[in-house]
Amino acid sequence: MEKFRDIIIIGAGPAGLSAAVTASAHGLDVIVLDDQPSVGGQIYRNIENAGKEKIKLLGPDYGRGTSLVEQFKKSRAHYLGNAIVWQINAQGNVCFSKNGKSTEINGRHILLATGAMERPVPFSGWTLPGVMGAGAVDANFKSSSTIPQGPVVLAGSGPLLLLTAAHLATLNVKINAVLDTTPLGNYRTALPFLPRALTRPDYLLKGLGMLLNLQKPGGNYVRGVTEYKAHGSDTLDHVSFKTRHKTHHVDAGVLLVHEGIVPRCDFTRQLDIKHLWDPVQRYWYPETNALGNTALKTVHVAGDGAFVHGGVSAQLKGTLAAIDMAGTLGALPGNNRSKALENFQNDQGVKQSSKSGALIRNQHVNRLKKQLNGELAPRPFVDALYRPRPHLYNMDDDTLICRCESVTAKDIRQAISQGCREPNEIKTLTRCGMGPCQGRMCGMALTEIIAESINSTPCDLKALSIRPPVRSISLSELAKTDLLEHHTQ
Amino acid sequence: MFKPYTQKQGESITIDFEGTPIEVPAGITVAAAVMGPVGKDHIRRSPVNGEKRAPFCFMGVCHECLMEINGIPDQQACIIEVKEGMKIKRQMNLPGVV
Amino acid sequence: MGAAVGLGLVRSGAKVLMLDKISDIHKASKANFGLVWSQSKGLGNRDYSRFSVKATLGFKEFAQWIEQESHIDLELRLGAGLVLSMGETEHTARQKIIEQMHQEAAQHAETHPSRMLDRTELQALVGDAPLGEKVSGGSFSTIDGDVNPLLLLKAMRKIFIQRGGHFIHGCSVNSMERKNNTYLINTTEGNIEVPKVVMAAGLGNLSLAAMVGKKIPLVPQKGQLLVTQRLKPFLPFPMSGLRQTGCGSVMIGYTQENTGFEVTTTPGAAAQLAQRALDIFPALAHARVVRSWAGLRVLTKDGAPIYDEIEENAYILATHSCVTLASVHESLLPPWILGGKKPDDIHRFNLERFHV
Q1: What is the pLDDT of residues A71-103, one digit of tens each?
Q2: What residues form DSSP beta bridges with C257?
């Protein structure tokens, strides 16, 4: 296996795939590593194996991925699926595991395109079998053509909640209730951002359509839900929820929860890259420039992993990052236009001219940026409308915060009352974050609970420190890792 | 917890679930198989308190879907596709060394 | 070091201000393996061997009152500790060391608490988990053991504060000078004037000592560690480089790398550590590593501590093994710092011995 590449891309979603297409079109040697069994990331999950019917059911938001994947397959980029990356460094060394064997390779540049995840928000009963993220509907339908068995209840807030409800309706899955926790006041506070969003009426109409669909008579759509809990002896049986002053109950076999989408920062944290805090959507994101470059010259981030802007934006950001990397690697032609660049631009419908390579590149970049700005126009409105409600992390004492180690909110609050204010210290005391998920599900809640207790915000606290292996690895596999140092002449 | 969207039979394969051969659609994830055609209401028990657990995120983040596959423990079932003859077991205890 | 000495000082009635800076590199306490260990210490240095044994023997009582006052369970285990030998060569070499330590002790009419075990004896002690082929046995001590080092630190700090000590977290010293029998210290949190200064900052002592014009012979040595997920209990006592903690996770350590002031964790070292763990217990093959980290050991030229007064009323304390020595740091150093005679146990742990 070739050990040295120009670019190693981690993640085969829209950002990773488009970056791979662009970079390889510039003659660069690219490899894409992804932990899923096929390309597409989450949004275009398993699209290679999706038949016409499935694509028709899910609509253009999914179907859009076919041409991107086709381009990727036609490109000279290499791809390894089911490849789990567990350590990277600023020198471009990447260790990954595939089929029980670990290998270390090197890239002159690394592009992190690992995307985003649903915001993990603990609540009473969330570990009961039957409770899952709303994304599980698409994940399972796209990868395995399965649908949830009822009674199905949806709870939470955000575009994905509406999208999931729409998909369930398309798939003829009866929904017992949709419990919308979007604070009614958000509709007011998001208004200032509406004018800019109106430049993308298509986007807004889609969302409005989904909302109206939910509020059809017979549908059980409840607004202004302030809290929900899952109940059952050892698996989910029913859901209780509060509106204004009343508590209600609804039967449930599957509870789909969604409270927003947040970037996955595993690798940017492992590299100790600086992260910024978005106070509207309440999440950390890595600090990058407009082309996705971090403070580490050879590391870029693209896609939802840089900031959550959706699939189309991810694709554009991937392309931009690839162009930037290509420039740094000297793959963008000077005055001699390469055939590869010509072909690429022909595909983009760009008229060839006699301008210099740098000028062409700048024009292309500016065009992409303009396109990206168009995609981003409705985001401030959407982000404000669906900003997390203030008491999202004010859970009961007996709520499990750390699922892996069964650490409760009470355990954490006790540690705080003993004077601990640092997430890593509380982790040591309580074991919160020490299980197999390595803090992915509890880290945010831990920081928010500390912030709430000491009257601060998470941006003033350190996040849980992430150390390799970023995904757990067995001792036997680790011992036999095929390291780069084994290959020196 | 999950059922097939369509009754149309595609290609199917046979897996070994805790000693029992079970027919499942080819190409689905192990997690989808266990929570679907195999018909279980949990995918493992928590090694800390023995509670039943099932996958939460279905995309490789939550690590609730850890199963023993072909003798190797702690495999993320939601990102692994079923294969003919695959031996799948739920993990019900703290792993031992002896 | 600072926590133990600070605690002893407040218990002796002194008014103490403890400054702790934020550092990724200078926190040996964050990478400690947790051993309470005497059997490997002080070959060719009776003072150090004796000192370590004294500290280890005193640990039980020390831990007891710490636990009582802090209400923190330190997860202390004493009474068994093993230094592994992998292969006959290592085993013979280890045997020679143990014999020599016994001889050195005998010359002072003392004993050294360790003996050699062969493979069969070791397997019997370990129990059901089968030892790897390369394990030849090791040296065993009936007084050594392990403790949770992070909880120990937390507990000592907690009692320090409870007993009137003042602790400022995240405070760095910018400069220090002596004027009219007082130390004027400029820190990131403001200026301080004190009659006595105790430098217990590990490798940070290098820059602190330089502020008063002194050079200290300390060097960093990197140690990398791994920890696994929880496993069913199988290892009832700590081994050199392999111990199972109270919750079942297995700690695997540690490298000894001379790479200067850096604490990166490398896959190469991790792979080596993993292989060693498998050489010891092959059945750990499927155990999953969830974290790796590294720290810098505070090493002196001869491996024995430095406790010295470098300027009038300015004390420098530096050593590795601060977990093992916590009990004696807490009891023996404060009276000396407060003006008493330097105890015989530590008399020779001075800076002068390095000036040839």
Answers
A1: 999 999 999 999 999 999 999 999 999 999 999
A2: C222
In chain B, the N- to C-terminal Cα span, in Å, equals 35
pLDDT higher than threshold 50 for residue A249: yes
Q: Which portions of chain C are predicted below pLDDT 50?
A: none
Q: Measure in Å the smallest separation between the Cα of C287 and chain B Cα atoms.
A: 8
Interface predicted TM-score of the whole assembly (ipTM), two decimals: 0.97
Phi/psi at A340 (5° precision):
-65, -45
Q: Note the pTM of the prediction, 2 decimals.
A: 0.94
Same fold, A4-117+262-346 and A120-259: yes
Write down the pLDDT at residue A335. 40
Dihedral of the alpha carbons of A110, C260, A486, C32, in degrees to the nearest 10: -90
| All chains having 3 or more CB pairs closer than 8 angstroms to chain C | A, B
CATH superfamily name and code, A4-117+262-346: FAD/NAD(P)-binding domain (3.50.50.60)
* Spacing of C-alpha C62 from chain mean position: 15
Residues of C in contact with B72 (CB under 8 A): 286
Q: Tokens for C117?
A: 């075990």
Residue A351 pLDDT exceeds 60: no
CA distance B25 to B90: 20
Chain C residues touching chain A at CB-CB below 8 Å: 150-151, 154, 158, 161, 228-229, 247, 249, 252, 264-265, 267-268, 270-271, 274-275, 277-278, 284-293
For the record, the structure tokens of A345 come out as 């631009």
CATH architecture of A120-259: 3-Layer(bba) Sandwich (3.50)
Instruction: Determine which of C162, C228, C290 to mutate to test the interface with A (most A C-beta atoms within 10 Å).
Output: C290
Interface of A with B in 94-123 (CB under 8 A): 100, 117-118, 120
Residue A158 confidence class, pLDDT cut points 50, 70, 90 = very high
**What 3-state class would DSSP assign to A65?**
helix
Structure tokens given for C131? 């030892």
* Domain ranges, ordered by start, for chain A: 4-117+262-346, 120-259, 400-460
Count CB atoms within 10 A of the CB of residue A60.
Answer: 9
Best C153, C166, C288, C292 residue to mutate vs chain A (most A CBs within 10 Å):
C288
Residues of A with Cβ-Cβ distance to C268 under 8 angstroms: 483, 485
Nearest to C278 by CA among B79, A474, B38: A474
How many cross-chain Cβ pairs, B to C, lie less than 8 Å apart? 34
List, in order of start, the domains of chain C with CATH numbers.
2-30+149-217+302-355 (3.50.50.60), 219-300 (3.30.9.10)
Q: Are B74 and A474 in contact (CB < 8 Å)?
A: yes
3-state SS string for C40-86: CCCCCCHHHHHHHHHHHHCHHHHHHHHHHHHCCCCCCEECCEEEEEE
From C229, C284, C288, residue closest to B97, measured CB to CB: C284
pLDDT by residue (tens digit) across A191-233?
899 888 888 888 888 888 888 877 777 668 999 999 999 999 9
CA angle A99, A105, A109 (to 5 degrees): 125
Model pLDDT for residues C275-313, shown as the tens digit of each residue: 999 999 999 999 999 999 999 999 998 999 999 999 999
Structural domains present in chain B: 5-89 (3.10.20.440)
- B97 and C288 in contact by Cβ < 8 A? no
Phi, psi of A29 (to 5 degrees): -90, 110
**CATH fourth-level superfamily of A400-460:** BFD-like [2Fe-2S]-binding domain (1.10.10.1100)
Using one digit for the tens of pLDDT, what is the confidence trace for C66-82? 999 999 999 999 999 99
Q: Which of A129, A405, A441 sits opposite B54 (nearest CB)?
A: A129
Chain B touched by A147 (CB under 8 Å): yes
